[in-house]
Design brief:
mainly alpha; Serine Threonine Protein Phosphatase 5, Tetratricopeptide repeat; elongated; ANK repeat; repeat; Ankyrin_rpt-contain_sf; Ankyrin repeat protein RF_0381; Ankyrin_rpt
Length: 400
């Protein structure tokens, strides 16, 4: 006809098995293609007609002819999820590794296993594996189907693939996981859902033998991933490997920075993470760590650092108190003093600035405390205004 369909094409499309059988008995050319490049077998597979597909294969229809979209009948059957037809095609010499080249897909070259993964066809994957498809085969980008499932954030497919014992420690696996995290965050509606799903993914991989080593990945990037996703189990696994002190210190700073970052309920977990990092060699007195925690105004975090050995004597006491007065509450200032911060020394070094900043910020307690320890009260700002003028201008009645 005008679309290039032969009588056999038409009979197959009409699902008329009797007509198909009759035509086949007269020896038609089964390789003839219509204007879209489809053979009769393509049409039968597309229609999901097992009976007619079997008939065509019994008469030696070629299972490896590509249509004008580069698809073989096997590709079509995989997309449809027709396990029985996939099996029939494979029994009749369909090429189990024939790639589908199409720029519409995430990768230009899609082998049958990748195509089945793309469409979430678990039963099809199982059937392909039964016919000796290599679960560790790589595409044109050097990725396996496990990598592909991870990139698609298909957790159910990841779990299924892992049941078939793929190699999961090849180069780049952990880099991929670290890069996948932002995609997970975009996909899930709430941050808590993202945390739950990504935590589940990482634990699945660890439970299936994922190892961590400096040769395979940027450990520091993955440590940060584990911290942000609150994956203590993963973090412990990484820290058991050869992780540099610098990486641990950077991770500790990152954990302090992420404290309270999303939900208050994460405090207990983040406390555990901070303690875990310190117990495994991160320096609790690393430069700027304590002052950064103070500037984050997080009393619990600072208390945890002191509990694990942070010392005001190994930091700049005046800098710590200045940060507390400028950024924090009464509790933070008292915590610093209780842990040895020398408020008199701070006043001696920069008493004018401390008092002025305290008044500007309306810090009644810190202003009173500074005066109690001898800070001057006759301070003026750059415009010559006294503390009373500053308090009045800022409408800070308590300080005035």
């Amino acid at each position: 006809d005008s679309d290039g369909n032969t009588p056999l094409h038409i009979a197959v499309e009409s699902k008329n098995a009797s007509a198909v059988k009759c035509i086949l008995q007269h020896g038609p050319d089964l390789k003839l293609q219509n204007k879209t490049g489809q053979t009769a077998l393509h049409i039968g597979v597309k229609a999901r007609n097992i009976e007619i597909t079997k008939l065509l294969l019994d008469y030696k229809a070629d299972a490896n002819i590509r249509d004008h979209y580069d698809k073989t009948p096997l590709h079509v059957a995989i997309q449809n999820g027709d396990v029985a037809i996939v099996e029939d095609l494979l029994k009749n010499n369909a090429d189990i590794n024939m790639t589908l080249e199409d720029d519409c897909y995430p990768y230009r070259e899609m082998k049958p296993l990748f195509l089945a993964t793309r469409f979430g066809q678990k039963d099809v994957i199982q059937k392909l594996l039964e016919f000796n498809a290599d679960i560790n085969q790589k595409n044109d980008k050097g990725k396996t189907i496990l990598d592909f499932a991870l990139e698609l954030q298909k957790l159910d497919m990841v779990e299924f693939i892992l049941q078939n014992k793929p190699a999961i420690n090849h180069i780049g696996k952990l880099d991929l996981l670290a890069k996948v995290m932002p995609a997970f965050e975009i996909k899930f509606k709430t941050y808590s859902e993202f945390i739950t799903q990504f935590h589940k993914l990482l634990n699945i991989l660890v439970d299936n033998g994922l190892k961590f080593s400096t040769e395979e990945t940027n450990n520091e990037a993955l440590i940060k991933t584990a911290i942000e996703t609150r994956c203590i189990k993963i973090l412990k696994s990484i820290l058991m490997e050869d992780v540099s002190t610098e990486a641990k210190n950077n991770a500790l700073f990152f954990a302090v920075d992420k404290y309270y970052h999303h939900y208050d309920t994460a405090d207990t977990i983040m406390n555990t993470i901070i303690e875990l990092l310190i117990d495994n060699g991160a320096d609790v007195n690393a430069q700027h760590l304590l002052v950064h925690a103070i500037k984050k105004s997080n009393l619990k975090c600072v208390a945890t650092l002191f509990k694990k050995g942070a010392s005001v004597n190994m930091n700049n006491s005046t800098e710590l108190l200045t940060a507390a007065i400028n950024h924090c509450t009464k509790g933070m200032i008292l915590l610093l003093i209780q842990n040895g911060a020398d408020i008199k020394a701070a006043i001696a070094q920069k008493g004018d600035a401390l008092v002025l900043n305290s008044v500007i910020r309306g810090r009644y307690f810190s202003t009173e405390l500074l005066w109690k320890y001898g800070a001057p009260s006759n301070v003026c700002n750059a415009d010559g205004q006294t503390l009373l003028h500053v308090a009045a201008n800022k409408c800070v009645r308590t300080v005035a």
